């Protein structure tokens, strides 16, 4: 029999909302998103499992909660290619390429290049971002990384929301780059422990 008892992690769907709200008003808060990058990797390396994805991922929780709030839950299964290994690893490579580009832009600003204060959706479309205050006395490279990282998090969340509307709520989780990466880490770790 399934227990109806709620746990603290059942409320982690609030985290992405707080994250985007904070970054909306001060782009420096985009650095908080690193939690969603570092913690899953630590859990995968130390524990050898994907408990972050299964239990603690705020974005996954949000994608599960939204349809229940709007009574719009669909049971439509995503196409098979979305579950395929080539798509998941291809999306991971693409995602890491975009992340690498963002880090490179940050490096250029660290070296003296001009700061680019732009949030970009889908790595292409510039969002007018004049309202996001930046903290004074913070080096430009930190601000540059903030804009890039916020763009990355916003774009991946929008992709997740789109597939959530089209298919089952947590379809994003099937090809999430962090999920694919941590799955690979777990497989390597568990293979070495045999």
Provide an overview of this structure:
By secondary structure, the protein is mainly alpha-helical. The protein contains nine helices and two strands; from the N terminus they run H-H-H-H-H-H-E-E-H-H-H. It has a two-stranded antiparallel sheet. Strand 1 and strand 2 form a beta hairpin. Helix 2 runs parallel beside helix 9, helix 6 packs antiparallel against helix 7 and helix 6 packs across helix 9. The longest helix has 27 residues.
Q: What's the arrangement of secondary structure elements?
A:
Blueprint lengths: L13 H12 L9 H13 L3 H6 L1 H13 L9 H4 L1 H26 L8 E3 L3 E3 L12 H27 L5 H4 L1 H16 L2
Antiparallel strand pairs: 1-2
Query: What share of residues is helical?
Result: 55-70%
- Whole-number mean pLDDT: 86
What is the number of helical segments per DSSP (H or I, 4+ residues)? 9
Largest sheet: 2 strands, antiparallel
Which secondary-structure class do the elements indicate? mainly alpha
Quaternary class? single chain
Strand order of the largest sheet: 1-2
Number of extended strands: 2
Kindly, what is the distance between the CA atoms of the first and last residues, rounded to a whole number of angstroms? Answer: 34 Å
Order of helices and strands: HHHHHHEEHHH
**Low-confidence runs of at least 5 consecutive residues:** none
Rg, nearest Å: 18 Å
Give the overall silhouette. Answer: globular
